[in-house]
Every structure is written in structure tokens, then in C-alpha cells.
Amino acid sequence: xxxxxxxxxxxxxxxxxxxxxxxxxxxxxxxxxxxxxxxxxxxxxxxxxxxxxxxxxxxxxxxxxxxxxxxxxxxxxxxxxxxxxxxxxxxxxxxxxxxxxxxxxxxxxxxxxxxxxxxxxxxxxxxxxxxxxxxxxxxxxxxxxxxxxxxxxxxxxxxxxxxxxxxxxxxxxxxxxxxxxxxxxxxxxxxxxxxxxxxxxxxxxxxxxxxxxxxxxxxxxxxxxxxxxxxxxxxxxxxxxxxxxxxxxxxxxxxxxxxxxxxxxxxxxxxxxxxxxxxxxxxxxxxxxxxxxxxxxxxxxxxxxxxxxxxxxxxxxxxxxxxxxxxxxxxxxxxxxxxxxxxxxxxxxxxxxxxxxxxxxxxxxxxxxxxxxxxxxxxxxxxxxxxxxxxxxxxxxxxxxxxxxxxxxxxxxxxxxxxxxxxxxxxxxxxxxxxxxxxxxxxxxxxxxxxxxxxxxxxxxxxxxxxxxxxxxxxxxxxxxxxxxxxxxxxxxxxxxxxxxxxxxxxxxxxxxxxxxxxxxxxxxxxxxxxxxxxxxxxxxxxxxxxxxxxxxxxxxxxxxxxxxxxxxxxxxxxxxxxxxxxxxxxxxxxxxxxxxxxxxxxxxxxxxxxxxxxxxxxxxxxxxxxxxxxxxxxxxxx
Length: 639
Hints:
Number of domains: 3
CATH superfamily of the largest domain: Aldolase class I
CATH class of the largest domain: Alpha Beta
Strand order of the largest sheet: 3-4-5-6-7-8-9-10-11
CATH topology of the largest domain: TIM Barrel
Largest sheet: 9 strands, mixed
CATH architecture of the largest domain: Alpha-Beta Barrel
Number of strands: 14
Helix content: 40-55%
């Protein structure tokens, strides 16, 4: 999966990827060719970020911090310097930088003003300025990580203009002012062809569930599983059979797929701790060999890592396996969650065919098919009556758990109860069964769901989580087509974890699912729960991916919005600066943000202070799996 192809074939076309860096190496579209001015390519990721390096970057910063003045005066002097740097970017005086590099200076100025403000220090319970002063005095806090100093060094270099992302203009239409009309158009078209070649080359690295080599391997897996269970292909396509044969322990799953010794021990520990666990035979057939590395994104959906297990024991369990989204504070009656004016969540079934490791409801979810997962008729009727009594509710999301585990009869019954409420205009069904149990989509079920769709009066939509191109299989495509052919829209809500975060990996997923009739809807930042830390990424990576990868695709293939789900409040759109402020840096290097509520300028509401993951730690993890951190270097300047 390392990006090093000399030639790849994609969609019946041959792209000579080895020529791309030479052709467009001076374009910011090709990230490896835009090495920062202060950092030679061969030394990227070998530079050690330290207090000493920070103090060597700018004599002005060093002088102010070492002045011996009190903290408020130092703050005042630094802000004056930052404001001056900011002002110069607009004045055009003594400035030979590219206009787009000047924008980065302005961005860094805004960040520094946020970090240095006393209010930010109060909100974050930390003074970055005090740490910088201590470092200038030769007494840096040893608790401050290299990732912390990496942020500081990049922010100082940013405000001082010690970088050049856009200085090379050989591959820039903006500098072809002497060309007009058809000549200009042809040059621009050639440029866009090269960008396309780059895009195709990068996306071609990621195999999908319909790649020939993958199909062959999975056919063998399916045959092996059926042989182990002494079953027939007909049973395989029966969703009831799939549910009866869910692997809930290491012994059963070892019949379905080859597991490493560590994976076996982890599953044993998960069972001992009572953590819900299960994998359908179908999804187990998507596994590859454990040492191949080809199926990491698949395995990490369902196999709990050691970090999760360690965070789920003893005192840690009460602290970390909790209601992170504060659903208890937004549930007016049992089974209902309401965060917005016109839509509510209804949770009639509290489990799934298999359990996603990063599930936001891991604090309340039950094991697959566990007794008690189905809500009582009394609770469902009470919840439906509550919806009927609140005319503001125009839309209901039926989720759980996974509601499509319920019987056809129960699904029809609940849909009918909601359809009988005149003010409910849209019903969503939230389910991952298209990915984990595609044979659930029988003609009977699809007809039931579609029967409640009335064009112009009531819409029915299916919301799902497709997490990787490898999950897009012929079975998934058939299930999606059954739903789409009945006039039901399908939307994907990608959880943007580490395992879908490599360059152009999410772009490949979007492109593929759109061809299957699935619209990209949201890209969720993973919930900030300690037990799922291995799945989290820097927010900056989501922003970088949107700008430098997703943006290269046609608009219909990139309709998803990147969002951070604020506990108790709801979604915060990450593409908009006005929805948050960067206010501090934690000792571990993670950024601290103040997220604004969606009610801002509408109603009085509190803000929320949250963190992400350290950029340097993320880049090192990428290096560990064979990625070149240099290809992600612009990540430091996404805020």
C-alpha cells in the first residue's frame, strides 16, 4: 500500500505515475514537491523539535521572551509584533512572497492571537506564553513533548514567513498572463490533465472490494468458512443464517479468518471484560492474511486494539466508556435523542449484527442479538407518542444499534406508526447492514421500506457507514441497487479515522460509492473518547484532505461535510473558521479548540472546549505504516 508504483492501471487506463513528480513537482497539488524553505526534503521528519530550535528560529521572538519584562508586557510586545507581521501582508511593502503564502501568515497571526489571549488561558487552564518564557529562561518544562514544540516551531516559522508553499510558478496558470483565449485555455487544460493523472495515480493505490485480486481472495475465504461450518452457498445468502453464525469469541472467528496471536488474546480479554463483540461470517470473509497489512482498515473496524482494552478496565472504565455525546442530557423520553429543532433520533433496537470499535454509543450498546436489545412495545409507543405531540419534529432517524436487525414485521410496524404522524415528512433509517450484512436487503424488506415513500409528501432515506473501498463489494452494490431502484436515497456518513486517512484514500472511497448510488453526506471527526484514541487524527488532517484531495474531484463526488460532533450540542462544520477558535496547545502537542454551537447568533448557548490528536504523533504513525510524512507537510498550516 506504499505509494511507489512505476505504472498502475485504473479504470482501463494506464497512468505512468513515475513521471508525475517530474511533471508537476512545482505545483502545490503535488505535496512532496513543495518542501518548506526552512527544511530540506531529505531531512524531513528527522529534525528534532526542541525549545532550543524554537528559540533559534526568530531573533525577535527570542529577544521579547528573554527581555525580563513581566508576563503582560511580554504578551503585549509579542502581539504588537504579530500584528505588524499581519499588517505587512496587506501593505505590499518590502514583500516578495506569493499572495497565497501571505494568507498563511495571516492564518498564523489569527492563531497566535487566540493562543496568547488571557481568556484562552482561562478556558484551556494552560498558558502557552508562560511555557515559552520559561524556555527562553533556559528552564523549559520537561513535560512538554516534541509534538508541542513541533507546533510552536511551525507557528513561529509561519508568522515569520519562513516557508514557501507557492513560490514555484512553473506549473501555475496564474503566471501565464501573456496568454489569452484559446492558447490560455489549452495550457490550462494540459495542467488539469496532469492534475488528473496525479489524482488517478494516487487513488489507484487503494484496492476495493471489486478489484479482481480481492474478489479471488474473498471467494476462497467464503468457501473456507462454509466448509468449516459444513454449510451451503444458499445458506450464506440467508441473513438469518448469518445472524445465527455471528462470531462472538476468538474460537468462532478463528474458523472464519486467520488471526494473529495478539488478536486472539485481545478477543479473549474483550470477552472477559464484557465488551460487546461480534463479526458476521460475511464481514469475516473480507479479511486478508493478518501479516499482509492489506486489510488493516477492515480488521480495525471490529478487532479491539490493546489501547482500547487497557482503557476499559477498572477505574478507567467508568471514566472512559461513557456517554461522550451527553445523550442522557438530550433525551426527553426513553429511546429519543433531540439536539436540533426539526429532527429526532429514535432507538428501538440497542445492538448490531457486529460491533464497530469506535461506536459513540459503546457505553450503552449490547452484544449482537443479546436479550433485551429490543425495546418494549410500551417504550416504543411512548416515544412515538412524544413525537406525535411535538409538531416541530419533521424528521425521524431510526437508529440504535442497527434497526434492520429487527424483523420485517417490526420494521413495518414502526414505520407505520411514524407515517401516521402527519407532521413527520422524512424518515431516515440508520444502518450499517449494507456493509456488514448486505443479504438483509431482501426484496420483501426493500418493498416494505419503499411502501412508505410518497413523492411530494414523505421521503425515506437510508443512512450508512462505508469506511473503506475494501467494504464496497458486489454484495454491497446489489443491496444498494435494490434500495436505489425503489426511489430511496442512500447517504454515507464516513467516520474519518486513522485507517482511512492516507493521501487520497477517502477520495477513492467517495468516488467509488458515488458510482454505486451512494451520496457522501458527512465526514465525522472520531469521538474524543480515550479508549478510541488509536482511531483519532488531527483535525488539520481532515481540513487538508478536503482542500488538497477531495477538492480535486467533481462536486457530486465530494458532497460530504467534515464535522465535529460537540457533546450535548450537535455538529460543528469544520470547513468554516467562524465555527471554532484555536486557543491553546496541550503538553502532548494536541490542539485545543473552542467550538461554537450551531445556535450562535440565534440563541444564547455555551461553547465547548475540545482537543484533537498531535500532528507529529500522527505523522510518525504514518511513517510506521510506510507513508512519507513529507507528503503531508502542509498539515501544520491547517487550523
